[in-house]
Design the sequence.
């Protein structure tokens, strides 16, 4: 006999209980497919999370920081209907932004009417201006005038840049980079280099030397050991005065002089420069040094003669320059005798006449005609 199959139970109704009383599994999706949505359009039937209105946030921020208060007011008023329509959060933020912005607008109007805003803005602008003019000595630029907070010292780091028409302590004439040293060389080598280089820089910056008042002297800021470690190699050269504040710029170079003025000063300034370098020892003590100096001054005189002769002078300057050139011709002969003296006694015999033949005013009439300073500066308290 064939085996009899036991009767099978009828299939359970769809969605009904499974054997053992377990409910039918819910719908599943394949991996990577969207999740099935519940009654509220979200998984598992959970309601969506409410978002905060961005305009409400912007309104509050604008109101808190008091910047553009009308903007915060507008953003808040636009945000309220959006929040109601979209069911968003942020109503309190929008209201707070509207209130703060309205107060800011009111304060702005009061400030404009009473002038308070102008006063605050003026103070702010003055503070910014003061901060922008407060410089390190390392940041000074050629042509800038400055005031020091205390005494002028080579270690000064904070200076205030001012208009050169205002009273000031110094004027920057130029700068140069220290080279030739790997490690910090110490102050003395840099100091010696600065003295020589800044003297040349100052002479080129203020070629009309007679316009430089008495009491103004060469000064410079140089690297310190600490700034050297940070890569600072710059020496800043200046004209400075501690006795009396300077007023007006001392600049007289190619940027401010005419071609004739510059040519005249280039010819004549070496005579003045060398004349100040006369040895301190008398010819009896150091005859060789004095004779060498006389030769250098003779070369400066001859250089000026050639320079004045080979330039074409026009207008009011032509006649006084020609007269000056004749005076230099006479001076050249006298200084030639002084430079060729065979002994200290011969040197003394030629010395006085050499000075007498050299124009004491170094061409004051020509300077007047050229529009240059025609009077040597006189120290305060001394006779003119």
Sequence:
């Amino acid at each position: 006999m064939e085996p009899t199959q036991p009767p099978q139970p009828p299939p359970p109704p769809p969605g009904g209980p499974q054997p053992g009383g377990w409910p039918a599994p819910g719908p599943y999706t394949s991996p990577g497919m969207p999740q099935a949505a519940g009654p509220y359009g979200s998984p598992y039937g959970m309601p969506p999370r409410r978002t905060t209105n961005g305009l409400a946030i912007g309104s509050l921020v604008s109101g808190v920081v008091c910047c553009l208060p009308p903007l915060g007011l507008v953003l808040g008023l636009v945000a309220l209907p959006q929040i109601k329509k979209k069911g968003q959060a942020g109503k309190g933020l929008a209201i707070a932004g509207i209130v703060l912005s309205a107060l800011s607008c009111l304060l702005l109007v009061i400030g404009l009417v009473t002038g308070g805003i102008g006063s605050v803005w003026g103070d702010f602008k003055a503070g910014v201006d003061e901060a922008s003019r407060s410089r390190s000595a390392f940041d000074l630029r050629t042509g800038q005038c400055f005031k020091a907070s205390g005494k002028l010292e080579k270690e000064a780091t904070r200076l205030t840049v001012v208009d050169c028409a205002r009273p000031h302590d110094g004027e920057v004439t130029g700068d140069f980079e220290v080279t030739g040293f790997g490690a910090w060389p110490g102050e003395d080598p840099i100091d010696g280099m600065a003295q020589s280089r800044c003297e040349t820089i100052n002479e080129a910056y203020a070629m009309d030397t007679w316009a430089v008042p008495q009491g103004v002297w060469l000064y410079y800021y140089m690297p310190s050991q600490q700034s050297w470690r940070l890569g600072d190699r710059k020496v800043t050269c200046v004209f400075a005065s501690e006795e009396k504040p300077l007023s007006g710029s001392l600049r007289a170079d190619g940027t401010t002089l005419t071609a004739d003025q510059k040519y005249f000063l280039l010819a004549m300034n070496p005579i003045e420069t060398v004349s100040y370098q006369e040895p301190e020892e008398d010819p009896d003590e150091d005859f060789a040094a004095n004779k060498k100096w006389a030769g250098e001054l003779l070369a400066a005189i001859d250089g000026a003669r050639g320079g004045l002769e080979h330039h074409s002078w026009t207008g009011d300057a032509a006649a006084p320059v020609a007269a000056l050139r004749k005076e230099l011709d006479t001076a050249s002969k006298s200084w030639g005798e002084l430079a060729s003296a065979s002994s200290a006694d011969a040197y003394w015999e030629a010395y006085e006449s050499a000075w007498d033949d050299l124009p004491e005013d170094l061409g004051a009439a020509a300077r007047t005609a050229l529009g240059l300073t025609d009077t040597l500066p006189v120290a305060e308290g001394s006779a003119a």
